[in-house]
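RECORD TYPE: protein structure
NAME: UDP-glucuronate decarboxylase
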Amino acid sequence: MASSVVRVDLDGNPINPLTICMIGAGGFIGSHLCEKILNETQHKILALDVYNDKIKHLLEPDSLPWAGRIQFHRINIKHDSRLEGLIKMSDLTINLAAICTPADYNTRPLDTIYSNFIDALPVVKYCSENGKRLIHFSTCEVYGKTIGSFLPKDSPLRQDPAYYVLKEDASPCIFGSIEKQRWSYACAKQLIERLVYAEGAENGLEFTIVRPFNWIGPRMDFIPGVDGPSEGVPRVLACFSNALLRREPLKLVDGGESQRTFVYIKDAIEAVLLMIENPSRANGHIFNVGNPNNEVTVRQLAEMMTAVYANVSGEPALEEPTVDVSSKEFYGEGYDDSDKRIPDMTIINRQLGWNPKTSLWDLLDSTLTYQHKTYAEAIKKVMSQSTTS
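PREDICTED:
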């Protein structure tokens, strides 16, 4: 429950309660952020989304300690005249809305571009025109490929952090050719970042841009056929979770050699709350939010998840726990990938004093414990129905 003690910011100033318009509040990040805000602060939330399944526990019943501090508005921001009014009613808008599933980037490039650029334009416009602060969620994908990926494979420079650590204020954004439509997402996200930045420079928009580096935890993404479409392909951790729950081999795209870092959702949400409550330190900045200590190849991630799930479920791992597939087979034509994504943490550490705490093993244990408890029986039911039909 939120404390009645006056909260203070990093500079010791009292924090006044805010009204926050949260677009995409019903998703993975939004649900955890809503929980954090309602439990620890006196801020009010206008929660905007098409679905509210992941925040239903926050909306009912009226006896909840935060009753009256969260309102759900079922809105598709593509075409809803209520959007500007809700932004006007708020002190701060947080935009989490996006299509952000890699399998969609080259199979639904138009939807991806429209969702991540065109649909976000009114949000930026209304915030700028009405003098409202904006926290806009972007992605680590805006960096694209590292400089190091273009060096010869045996070059010692590949080990130099200058060639692969990603810095908000220095690293270039390097994408593949236009025919590689996998970059439709990253390109749309980069362009909306540039628009937000330009509104700040030319029209005084108070903004913060967040670049998440693989935020992981309970309620992440969807499990196909259970809480998502049967034919959908979620992001890597949910793909692996789905296979583990179904006792199927984990599919490693192109050998699983790409490297990623993963950060626990509860650590990441701490960073966002610091941004919300410290505008003097956060405004005008772009923040990497990730955990460079939790770096693994996708193959190593699969191996670790297999071990963690065996521990969580009590079920032995498959004799052949993984299988290699090509990116064309898995994602279709037009797929491309980045080699490494290691966030530089200098700016967020300097401005907000934030550092992630949770190890990769612990965050996987938390996530897979939740997924096994939540989905195991549902998946058994789905599988039994499919074999009898």
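COMMENT: The two ends are 48 Å apart (CA to CA).
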